[in-house]
Design goal:
With 133 residues, the chain is of the alpha+beta class. The chain is built from two helices and three strands; from the N terminus they run αβαββ. The chain has helices at residues 21-38, 59-70, and strands at 44-49, 74-82, 108-115.
């Protein structure tokens, strides 16, 4: 499971979190390629990401497209994490007190689950420790 930097200017000691979007995707996808490489067959990769801050393309959609089409993983699930204390960098106004181009403040994040190679993990039902509870 990973929660990569979102590329909207957080203060990290070891990386620039305000990159040109194509540079950010190159950075992110190199990491996800390595995650995919080291994940075992039937393993899972879980990614937590905010909705897009890229005004021209939903970055979370590009991430899902990359993981399924380019990396060949199986999309398994999407969770929406409603955050109680949203710490958004942008205001709701496109420009101060102007309704001409408002921003939508994201109070949620996505959690995507991908499987490598197969939806099913090997094993016998009798060996499972899952219970009704």
């Amino acid at each position: 499971m990973t929660s990569p930097p979102y590329n909207f200017g957080r203060d990290y000691e070891s990386m620039d979190d305000e990159q040109i979007w194509n540079d950010y995707y190159d950075f992110l996808f190199e990491i996800l390629k390595e995650n995919t490489r080291i994940t075992k067959h039937t393993g899972r990769i879980i990614i937590n990401i905010q909705p897009s801050y890229n005004k021209y393309e939903p970055s979370h959609i590009r991430l899902v497209d990359f993981m399924t089409r380019e990396m060949g993983l199986l999309w398994r699930s999407e969770f929406v994490w409603h955050k109680q204390n949203c710490n958004c960098k942008t205001s709701a106004f496109g420009s101060w007190r102007s309704p001409s181009s408002p921003n939508i403040k994201s109070t949620w994040e996505y959690i995507y689950v991908f499987a490598k190679g197969s939806e099913k993990k090997p094993g016998k039902t009798k060996d499972s420790d899952l219970t009704r509870d």
